[in-house]
Each structure stands twice: as C-alpha cells, then as structure tokens.
Write a structure and sequence with these properties.
eight-stranded mixed beta sheet; Rossmann fold; 9 helices; single chain
C-alpha cells in the first residue's frame, strides 16, 4: 500500500529528506510528497525542484491527505509538531533529538501511545552498514568480550543557536554505543564541555560512559569515550568509531562507506607475542554497496506507516527518549543543565 508523505522543515537536513523521498516516490514506494515550511519561498522552490506539492502550515497536512510525515525543523519545534501531527492522525519520524528535554520527550511518547500513531526517531546511524556489521561481530563473539569503545565526531562550524554539540552530535555516538551493547543504557555518564562564544551553547565535549557488568559479554562492564567538537581546526571533519575487544578490535570510518578494518589480537596478545603494531594482523572487511542510511531509515518508516511492519521500530520513540535522557545526563555532569 502506497501513501502520501510530507517533510516538515526544509533546511539543510530537511532537504536530504525531500531528495530521498522524491527518489522513493519516483520508484513507486510512496504515492505523493508534500513539502512544508514556514518560509513560503523556500517551500515553493524546493517543491518545484523535486516535483511535489507544498504548503506553509503543518496543520494543513491532513486536509492534503498526508498520512505520514518526517519532522526536520529546528529542535525546539520537534516535540510540539510531533504531538500536533499525531493528534491529527499522522504517523511521524522526528529527527533527533526527539525533544529539548526528557519531560517533552515523555509527552511525545504518551501522545503516540494514546493516538496509536507510529513514532520513530531519526537515529540514522542505527541503519549504517558498518554499525550493523559491528553489531554482528560483537554478537557472534568474533571480538571476544568488549573492553572499550571510543568515537570522534569532529568538524569546524559556527555553533548552532538551539543546541550544542552534545545534543547535536554526541547523541549519535551515545546511541550507537548503547545499540552495540544490546540497547543497554550506560549506568554512569561523566562529561567535560567547553562553551562557545554563546555561553549557553557548548561546542566541544568529552563524554565518558560506563556500561553495566556483563555488557558486551564482559563481566566487568564496558567503558566508552565520546569526543565531539565544532572547533576541529587541525583535523577537520572526522567521523570514526573504534571498538576494542579482547580478541580483536574494529576501526570504522563513517566517511568510508566501502568497509571497515578488523585487527586481530587473540586473548589480548601484545608486545612481541603480538608482533608489535606494525606487524599487527589485520584484515579489511568489505561492505556491499547498499543504499544510504537515510534511505534505509525512511524505507523502514514507510513500512511501519503503511502497515507492512507491525514490530517495534528499530529507532522507536523509546530509543529517542533514551537518547534525550543520555544527553540530559551528560549536560548535568558538565554543569550545563
């Protein structure tokens, strides 16, 4: 069953939603597409470019026959729009973070439960091929017990006016790590955050997390470190994840979509026993050239919205709430909430 969809918010990331859904429309996956933005000129221009309808009022979507919508507006509008659309009978995929705080996020989940509408959250990297391969290698024991996970998500840009790097960037990596640990939430979160020129918005943060005992098949639990920054003036754009196991470790570069590296060190071998770093036995795991993560995420949303998939969404509202909760804990630990 095909359906009519809308994208609410056509800024930088919203445009990617429109482009991807327009391609799915051309392939018959959805029937029609509506672009909705309070900026009439931008909405009309994008609708003309991608061959779809447009409007400026999200409250008009029901009258236009829209059954499902993605929300890619500035973060403060996520929760109010999601609640409004679900009350109108529209299924929603809300970009992350789901809300500005835990209280708002809980209100969104309560509305989804009351209305029975589909609620998904844009935790995009859950659909990344390298992350799914890492989850497979952790689950099948290839890496042995997991000891530590670390990530760097760095770039150079002006701070956002609505949220800082923890809610904008670190939420990705905290959710990825939680996903890889079997969706077990960390039991400790510490954070150091540095303010930007706007003292209310942090532009650099280091987050330390501890996962409970037996996470990652490790009786001692798993440690994790997330580094995020908008002031990476030396390295530029960096998107990497490293997973250290007792028997092998993974290195993932999200900017390299073709594969990842696995480094073998059975039973935590090191030094001469291991052969030294230069002689480290490693191999390349090639990944099949599949569709982009955003396409996979939107296909999943469509399958739930049109009733083809009635299971709990992989990036459910609960996942979104837990993401907001981890962000809140990091901000509190840094003394910023």
């Amino acid at each position: 069953m095909s359906l009519k969809m809308a994208v609410v918010g056509t800024g930088y990331w919203g445009r990617n939603h429109v482009r991807t859904l327009a391609a799915l429309k051309s392939n018959g996956v959805i029937s029609e597409l509506v672009v909705c933005d309070v900026d009439a000129e931008r909405a009309e221009s994008m609708a003309s470019e991608f061959g779809c309808e447009w409007c400026t009022d999200a409250n008009a979507l029901t009258s236009l026959g829209v059954a499902a919508a993605t929300i890619a507006t500035p973060t403060p509008q996520h929760a109010p729009l999601a609640i409004s659309l679900m009350k109108q009978g529209i299924d929603v995929l809300v970009e992350k973070p789901l809300a500005m705080n835990e209280e708002q996020a809980k209100e969104v989940l309560a509305c989804a439960e009351k209305t029975g509408q589909v609620l998904m959250v844009g935790h995009l990297f859950r659909y990344h091929a390298a992350v799914r391969k890492a989850a497979e290698l952790i689950a099948d024991g290839t890496l042995g017990p997991i000891l530590h996970i670390e990530s760097d998500r760095l770039s150079v840009r002006e701070p956002r006016p609505d949220i800082g790097v923890i809610a904008a960037l670190a939420i990705h990596d905290m959710d990825i790590m939680k996903d890889l640990m079997g969706d077990i939430e960390p039991n400790t979160i510490n954070c150091l955050a540095l303010p930007s020129d706007n003292p209310k918005i942090e532009d650099h943060a280091i987050i330390e997390m501890g996962f409970p005992k037996n996470s990652g098949s490790n009786p001692n639990g798993v440690s994790a470190v997330v580094t995020v920054s908008w002031r990476s003036r030396i390295q530029g754009k960096v998107r990497v994840l490293r997973i250290i196991g007792q028997d092998a470790s993974l290195a993932i570069d999200y900017l390299d979509h073709s594969g990842l590296w696995i480094h073998h060190h059975p039973n935590n071998a090191h030094g001469q026993q291991w052969g030294g770093f230069d002689a480290a036995p490693r191999e390349r795991i090639e990944l099949p050239l599949g569709e982009p993560s955003l396409t996979a995420e939107l296909r999943a949303f469509i399958s739930h919205a049109n009733g083809e998939n009635n299971d709990t969404p992989f990036a459910s509202g609960k996942v979104g709430l837990e993401g907001v909760s981890m962000v809140s804990s990091a901000l509190k630990a840094a003394g910023r909430e």
